[in-house]
Amino acid sequence: MADFSLFISSALLALALGALLGLERERSGSVKLGLRTFALVSFLGFLLSFLASSLLGFSSILLIGIGFISVVVLSVLYYYFRAMKDKSATGITTALVVPFTYLLGVLIGMQYRAEAVTSAIAVALLLVERQKVHAAVKTVTISEIVDGLIFAIIAFVVYPLLP
Length: 163
What we know:
Elements (H helix, E strand, L loop, with lengths): L1 H27 L6 H20 L3 H28 L7 H17 L3 H16 L1 H10 L2 H20 L2
Helix pairs in contact: 1-2, 1-4, 1-5, 2-3, 2-4, 3-4, 4-5
């Protein structure tokens, strides 16, 4: 019974995280993919990774990989036909978030629930704060970017090598 309750709670979490991202995309108004689509994509990733956990060896990775490739192809087709219909629609964010949502479901199915929740919240925040992100990008100077790169090199390359 414990496995079934874990399955139910994980399935609900996958649906909720997909719905969170879908809600934001639907509210943006410029896309046709919304809450239901994103919830189903996340749920698909969860189901395939849950099924893959019962398989052994290469076939489990293959199952998840086929699902990911399928979602990427559908996302590319969505972007292509949207761009053909509306020549001014050049945004690629939704086409990128769809495969990401699938991977959230995979993470949940592999029992990386905290990582999936953290990632979903970070992406939802980035999507919701679109105006502020674009405004911040316009104010950053080249010297600030260079300073950030120097800091990253010191923090993530030099510092770990020190005794």
